[in-house]
User: Fold this.
Amino acid sequence: MKYEYDKVATGVWMRTSVPLRDVCVQAAIDIAEHARAMAPVREGNYIRSITVVNASGIDRVGAIVEASDDAAAPLEFGNDTSGRGRHILRRAAEVAGYDVK
Assistant:
């Protein structure tokens, strides 16, 4: 048996595969749970802002973990006073077992 790569069929699968979408969503849920556990607790706004968003569209299936609180960017990337971020979402992905390089 010889495998022949079918670019069109692969593209269709990447855009429409329900099992692939489910894997992406589950990975995002795992990362979001780790991020919430790692997040600093003050008023809880940052933790509540960590959500999983369906990123499936015309050209792909997928999911995104986002933190929408105003403190999200300074926590992730740092701010003018600290100069370095905590990289909560990146570290959560690593803890969940995903290579983020």
Observations:
- DSSP finds five helices and two strands in the chain.
- Residues 39 and 49 are 11 Å apart (CA to CA).
- The chain has a mean pLDDT of 89.
